[in-house]
Design brief:
Two copies of one chain form a homodimer. By secondary structure, the first copy, chain A, is an alpha/beta fold. Helix content of chain A is 37%, strand content 18%.
């Protein structure tokens, strides 16, 4: 056995058994080792942004890290934007980044770069293993760090000679990473939150991270129902379990004016795994901090703590019975469009209505999908995964990874066209792995969000330079061709009837399918 | 006027008049400013790897920097791999990277990241401008650094409020960057090189950077013809002017065994803008340094110096007349295939034969194009641009930028399929700008170079995990669909006759066209 074998064995022994990969020459010994470990499922992405985004989607649904395999500084660089999203989602991930042999780095060959430098901005932990003998301990440390609540990006740099150097068979016992218990919040924090709720003033529970999973939400739902406290999630969330009888939670809007309006009368903000809300961007004359300056902010529990326990404890403290009724989603009160020109709203409504049980919704719909959560609050039970770090190009990879994690569930992706183009290569992986991914491209043929932002900066009528940077016309993208080019069947529709038919068809089949919804 | 206007004015005043861009919210004021400066040509890329790769291709052909406009750390991250290539090519480039407003960074909004940290590994110079008043001086400094020989990557971080803050009209005079003269080599260096050549032992002139431009090559060609010195270029080169009556130069092979063999009997290695050659990768039991350990290495001139002057001086020192005959390319001695199953060799031969005058060849053909330089040594005069830093995904963007720089020349891209997938979004920009780009996809449907490397690490028959990471089958890519999806007409051919016809057709038309050459 060699270092690469030791690394693979350690990953497998620590329950990391999926590797999203785009390897290169310096990783060939690792690839050869993977070949000797059929238990490791290797999933190829044709671009590293697909690889890291898929590892994110996988871990969000599997609740355990995947490994990625990346090729030196530039390969890691290609994966950086989706690592940024994963870091913001606090997704656990173990990146294995191949590098030149330890003795070769000094010669500054063309692919040499400062790999640690590239890794650090988007990793919580970075280490370079210098000997084959150290690999198992380092890999176990990486897995341990990745799993530590609320989840971390661990990047292990693997010099080629560390992988290819032989090890004695006595080194065969892989190191196991400890599993850490979640810490719990304090009685003081619970009492402070309870006092805020008992004040009789407007209280909002701001939920983030695992507070958006079913058990925690149920406790929050009892509190909300019993006390009138509002439930609001952060704008960007790793995973929300919702639909069916689950407790609904409002999402803090992305547009700054709406976000400020939503919080303007809040007197007590109870933070449950969430940060005090800040503007996604700064705008001239608008605030950075979104909660009223004089509102009382109480931290019930931080993101790394056991948030379900904290909310249940808070319910107990408030004297709310474990079987007390919970907040319920309002009955759907929208009209279902039947025909005519397709609109973003019609797409959202029809997807919300037809969403199958236990679907996983991957949402990078940007402007066009902002109303989807409203329509889908009473959909069948589903998971809702979204863009967390604002780095566009996550939707298709996220869906790819989620489908690998949950082969028995339908993955429905709401994908804006502009951001979809960033990592469209994910469609190929969906075809290769025959993943049950239905993609809806919301094709408005522009960076619509930026048109809005242009108005925000005072430009009423964009000129030629601006239009050419904000529009995706001339030529428009044909997603059916793009999908077919990567082995995914696709249709394009521009009417409500057409979309309803295509959606029905797409939901019925197994395997990847794409609907270009021209709106 | 505001900071963004001042920045645009400064770029234009310093002869930077093309901006490859993919902007976001934090850059909206810059976009609005660009709208007021119609002299700036804004070219949208649908992914930042396209933006930086196009800026590289532009500068290689225009001999001056373009600007890029990128969106915070993740947008820069997406452009990092092609920045790495540009850094290795020593291409001048000015990156403008938007960031949060100076006062907003502290709140750690979702898109916040360490932008300097992301920039540094692939930039020669990084600066954050903290006030609108400082923007003109900082932008001028960036252009000055970028232009400094042999070319640098300058990254200027632009906080949103720096762009949007108003400036007095008195600030309207943009700062001009000084233009620096090239330094010249020394008489000692010339005498040492001349002594090596006069030794009567085997001498190789190793040429890099601007030593591969016509005037320098002509001087090298006189020396080679008169003295028997061999001319070899580095493996990875920014731009070689070749074909027609230009002096031919051998490229140091990428495969390590071939590279070592090429240099094995060299007694004197004269470095002209080149580094002493090193292995692209390390391999167990193979050397990192490629020249014989005991060979005499002489630096005639370094990359930042005036290499044409150095070679002309060396010719003078050797007593070679300015009109002495030069080394000529051997007459083409290969057979031109007429029919049958298409092969990589047939593609290379036919492209080499049909290459129009002053074509620009962008080469990311990886394994399949290795013989193209042999066949094309006696082609019509052309420029040959190639992958410089080993970060795949540069071919299509490079072509895009080269075509923007040289609208009257045909750009022919030899693109391997695996690497082409990294930045295929460049095809859309070619369609949008109606660029005269003919793309040949060498579709071998695998990462063929890695199959070779697997053999190098001793794996004779790759297993399932390895095959699934090295092959692009199941499903295979259909490049005609991919191209059409982005508005580029395309055909797929798998015979010699079919390819010859398609190539003729593609060369005849103006505007983008793609040929999938299934080999």
């Amino acid at each position: 056995m060699n270092g690469a074998d030791s690394l693979c064995d350690t990953l497998l022994a620590n329950d990391v058994d999926v590797c999203f990969a785009n390897p290169g020459t310096s990783e060939m010994h690792f690839v050869a080792a993977l070949d000797r470990k059929p238990k490791m499922r290797c999933v190829l992405g044709l671009f590293e942004g697909v690889v890291t985004g898929a590892a994110d989607g996988y871990a969000r649904m599997a609740d355990k890290p995947a490994a990625t395999l990346l090729h030196l500084g530039p390969g890691l660089g290609n994966g950086l934007a989706n690592l940024h999203n994963a870091k913001r989602a606090r997704t656990p991930m173990v990146n294995i980044v191949g590098d030149h042999a330890t003795y070769h780095v000094q010669y500054d060959a063309p692919l040499t770069s400062d790999v640690e430098g590239v890794a650090r901005p988007m990793s919580h932990w970075v280490k370079r293993t210098m000997t084959a003998a150290a690999l198992s301990a380092d890999a176990a440390e990486a897995v341990g760090v990745a799993r530590r609540s609320p989840g971390n990006i661990a990047t292990l740099i693997l010099p080629a000679d560390t992988a290819w150097t032989d090890l004695p068979e006595s080194a065969a016992q892989p190191v196991l990473a400890p599993r850490e218990e979640l810490t719990r919040t304090s009685a003081e924090a619970v009492r402070a939150a309870a006092a805020a709720i008992r004040s009789g003033e407007v209280v909002t529970l701001m939920l983030g991270g695992t507070a958006l999973r079913e058990r925690a939400l149920n406790a929050a739902g009892r509190i909300a129902r019993a006390t009138g406290a509002r439930l609001v999630s952060e704008t960007s969330n790793r995973r929300i379990e919702r639909g069916g009888s689950r407790t609904p939670v409002d999402r803090l809007p992305y547009p700054i004016d709406l976000a400020v309006a939503k919080l303007k009368d809040v007197r007590h903000l109870v933070l449950v795994g969430a940060k005090s809300p800040v503007g996604f961007f700064a705008y001239p004359g608008k605030p950075s901090l979104l909660a009223p300056a004089d509102c009382n902010q109480v931290v019930l529990a931080t993101a790394e703590q056991d948030l379900a326990h904290a909310l249940e404890w808070l319910a107990d403290e408030l004297g709310i019975a474990a079987d007390a009724p919970r907040l319920a989603a309002p009955a759907a009160s929208y009209e279902v469009p039947q025909s005519g020109k397709l609109t973003g709203a019609a797409v959202n409504i029809l997807v919300a209505r037809m969403l199958p049980e236990q679907a996983i919704v991957c949402d990078e719909s940007i402007t066009q999908g902002r109303e989807f959560p409203i329509y889908s609050a009473s959909s069948a039970p589903h998971d809702w995964l979204m863009l967390t770090g604002g780095a566009i190009g996550i939707g298709l990879p996220l869906a790819t990874g989620a489908a690998v994690a949950c082969p028995d569930r339908k993955v429905v992706t709401l994908q804006a066209d502009g951001s979809g183009m960033y990592t469209l290569q994910a469609l190929w992986t969906q075809a290769r792995e025959n993943l049950d991914c239905l993609t809806v491209i919301l094709a408005n043929r522009s960076y619509a969000t930026l048109h809005g932002e242009m108005k925000n900066v005072g430009v009423k009528e964009p000129g030629r330079n601006a239009r050419r940077m904000l529009d995706l016309q001339e030529p428009h993208l044909e997603w059916t061709h793009l999908a077919r080019g990567m082995g995914v069947e696709a249709v394009s529709v521009d009417t409500v009837e057409g979309f309803a038919r295509a959606l029905q068809e797409g939901l019925k089949r197994r395997g990847p399918f794409l609907i270009e919804a021209v709106i």
